[in-house]
Amino acid sequence: MLRSSSPKISILLHALLFLIVASSALNYWSVAEYAINVSWNAYYYSKASYISLVPSWQKALKDLFAFLLLLGSLWFPRTTPNQGLNKNNALVICYALSLVILSIAILRSIDSNFTVIMIFSCLRPFLLVVAIFVFCHRHLQPYYLRWVLEAINILALIQVFYAYLQRRAAIIHNGFDWFHSGSARAVGTFISPNTMALFLALVFYLNYSILPPHKFRFLMLPLCAIGIFFTGSRTGLIIIALIWIIESYKKIGKAYKINMFKDKYLAVFIALPILFSIFIFTLRNVNSISGRVSSSTMTDGRLIIFNSLIKESDILSLLFGHHLGFGSNIAKTLFETSGKSNDTFFLSDSTFASLLAQFGILGLLITGIIIYIFLQKNTYNIIHTNKPYIALLFTGKLKKEKTCFFIYLISILATIIIFEFYAVLPIIVSLLFYFKMPDIIFENN
């Protein structure tokens, strides 16, 4: 039974969830303003002189909000309607194994050239992860999550506006043009083109596949696409193209009562080859649009980093990881600001490589199992009659679209270090928990 004070508690905790996302997405707002209005440089986001304009307390805001969310989630009585998830023994085992693997990584980091302060700083992303998981287990409510997702649209509009200003500045000062995606990569109020693009790709997915229909969605979709185009992110463009293709197929299939995946022969000989051809066609055209074809081969970029990590790792490191912070962008920043050298420095550049570098194959495996558990189809339902408020409590009128979510998840795991991307991680985890909410079945007497 939910207590009478639960609405106030839920509003407070969901507001903290939004503040984590907002403080991350808007962290470099002042830097963007300075670059556009005072001293323009097309690649200002990669220069320490610009990044240093953000005070440390501002960078720590998201950590403060995460800490408050963790305290509030533990302090207040449970308010989530999904009590059954807490009895999932497989999740409990995975959480326990995750704690063991994290402990091993911390112990191994003691033998590295990391100071205590560096080890503590590398634990910051895991404070956020723990805070979000505890919050979702105890307090996530789809009704309030829906309004968090709606509010994130405002953050997306800010990103698109600043992407436009950044492209216009590049045209005025550098002679670039509007139609070459990779000529001057916009970052919005983020500090990396890919992080902005993948944030907008998430917003595109939310408006197209998760949030209830509204005429406002038809404005958000093209705006997100334009913002991603200005970033020059191939991954972002591929994600929204595939989401559009899948959703279009579903709408056409529903209208004409066609589902090629139900018939295994149609799926094998028609549907899968068609989708694979569409994917290849999309990939080739996105590379052309981005203007970055020369760096898009399978022998460049993240794949070569991943291969280098495997070659440099011994058996023990492959199983358990090198140490906490190895391959982390946080570690790179700390070493640069402290003036210390690190002969064993390695930048992973993606979540797959980051997990392997810090937690080994076991870390990758446990992470995959946890995601698999949340994406599994529910085996239990709530059946009720004439109680629409129950459906609103458990669904918030949100849709459970997992196919496009899976495409987005795989893409970002291979493109960014998601544990250091606070603007996306809280929403991804919240959606995973929402997918495990019981299905509602209306029973007519």
Task: Report what the structure shows.
With 445 residues, the protein is mainly alpha-helical. It has one domain. It is built from 20 helices and 2 strands. The chain has a two-stranded parallel sheet with strand order 1-2. The chain is globular and about 65 Å long. The two termini are 25 Å apart. The relative contact order is 0.13.
Draw up the topology in text:
Elements: H1 6-25, H2 29-37, H3 48-51, H4 56-59, H5 61-75, H6 89-110, H7 116-122, H8 124-139, H9 142-174, H10 193-210, H11 217-231, H12 234-256, H13 264-290, H14 302-312, H15 315-320, H16 329-338, H17 351-375, E1 381-384, H18 388-395, H19 403-413, H20 425-435, E2 439-442
Structural classification: mainly alpha
Characterize the main sheet: 2 strands, parallel
Q: In which order are the strands of the major sheet placed?
A: 1-2
Q: Determine the mean pLDDT.
A: 83
Number of domains: 1
Portion of residues in beta strands equals under 5%
- Give the helix level as a range of percent: 55-70%
- Cα Rg: 22 Å
The dominant shape is globular
Contiguous helical run count: 20
- Along the chain, the helix and strand elements come as HHHHHHHHHHHHHHHHHEHHHE
Q: Report how far apart the termini are.
A: 25 Å
Query: How many DSSP E strands?
Result: 2
Low-pLDDT parts are 294-300
